Fold these 2 entries.
Entry 1:
Amino acid sequence: MPYLHVFLILLYLFISCHLTWAAELNFSWLANSEPDVAGYRLYYGDSSRNYTDSIEIGHYPVDGRIYSTIYGLDISQTYYFAATAYSATGEESDFSNEIVQCIRCDTIEENPGPSKAMPWILLLLRDE
């Protein structure tokens, strides 16, 4: 019986050591009005204007807005985000204003850029 308790304690410690906290950020912005917009790219990285990742988002506005979510972000990291629009022929717009989000902080900062920034970000923490 004591071995069962030791086993269960070790099993709990093993499982809990592999749990990590991850964040997801929800984005929304006003859809572009140009008729040739095919979609958007949401770029992000860990330093200003140095984006290491991106996601593709289709041009499917809901009530005139585009919505997207980025999953699996490290909660100990500060991220920089900017979006572009692209056409079916592959032309891509300039970057939007940059949004800075410190995952463990409650602040959102806007860095100046050539166009309008995404108006809101919702931070959700998830235990993975």
Note: Residues 3-19, 112-128 have pLDDT under 50 and may be disordered.
Entry 2:
Amino acid sequence: MKYLFLFSVTLYLSVAVALAQHYPICGHDQVNIHRAQTDGYDLRMQQIEADYINTLSSGFSTRQAAPDTLPVIIHVLHLPSTTLGVDENLSNADVLLGLDRLNSFLSGNSCDGLPNGVDVGFRFRLARRATNGATTTGIIRHATTAAEQGLGQSSITAFSINDGTFNSNQYIHIYLVKSICYVGTGTGCQGPLGLATGPEAHGDRGDHIMAESRFWYDINEPCEGVKLLAHEIGHYFNLLHTFENGCTNTNCLTDGDKVCDTPPDNLSDRSNVACLSGTPNNSCSTDIDDTYCSNTLQTDEPDPEENLMDYSQFDCQYTFTQGQVDRMQACLYTTRSSYLNSTAFDDPCTSTLALITYISPESPFLTVDSISTFTVVTNFPAYTPDSIQWSINDNYTATSNIFNTTFLAADEYKVSARVFRGNCFATIAQVVQVYREDCSLNIFPSGMPDLCSTNGGGIWKPSFNKTGGSIQVDNQQII
């Protein structure tokens, strides 16, 4: 049986039937079917489009002096039995080679002798620091027995490690999987080669780009993978397919693919090979219908089969248009702007972790109804935290360098300090036993005795022995 990764279990049956007859190379449209069912989807999309129009109207220029560098976490999903460096379990070296090749292509460099493309104005770089300040390589491996049915969108949520380690509003998550499946059949998986969420998912736990790992780095097909990934990256930064919404072109900023320098296109058939003959299709004659000044088309032009957002053959594709780059950049500087302020490239916080020694007092025994004072002791007297957040049993209590608290009941408590310095923080915890000073008063409302001390010295803990029909309480000295 072929193992694979199923991206969504929420697709309607009608979609499954349609896909059983035709599987597009890209799964973005099907991702949107799932996303459109989430609360607030329409409002988020309206705001994203408004930001796009406003950004263009403000005279925003994407021709910056140097490209932006965006933090990425690459997840390698592989079968537990697959050896590192074999099949879908790509080696670190292959992950890095694939990333270098992708960045070169995004900069406009041709990978197959076709003309150079337009520089998108950003590059990807593996993160070196997690949200919590820990060191990371930026490559996360997941050994999984994901099979044909049943994992779905929830699995991407599980693999995204969005527990504060790699928050998706600070890191771009790329998943490399063995296969992507919409419909399981007797012969295995039927599905696209890649997919991506759009910008309305920004910050959500399931926000991601996904591709079959064989397209990330294949020494025998050096171009197909980067073109597939570039296509999905386009969706991630708000690009539509060139054939989106058909031929209508009364306002090129709101019709079709909402980009004014891509000719209207109404052909989504992947089997089309007209571009290879040198005579591309021309499925629309509405290129100059838009009379607004934003329309850059002066004549009826062929379908943009050289465009990376089209469904033409890989051998025909090599570029985005400048208008598409502007739309991606508008998205980066509005909806997805948090990537520009990520701490993913900062130095990891190993120094902060090393400086913290222990929480004072060191004694784990404290008394009920007395004020207990806690501080953080460091290895170097000159080290001063910016702030310390204190928690008791993982419940936030106060922010202060010196923490005073009173325990009202005898029990075991975990006292935690999260120490902040600059952009780094580290957490240290200590378990304390809180006891009563007089065993004669050591009775809970339930009638059960607890940790206490006696005039004769020592701290005692009750133990229970059943004798006949009664329970006898004996104190056992622990210190």
Note: The longest helix spans residues 41-57.
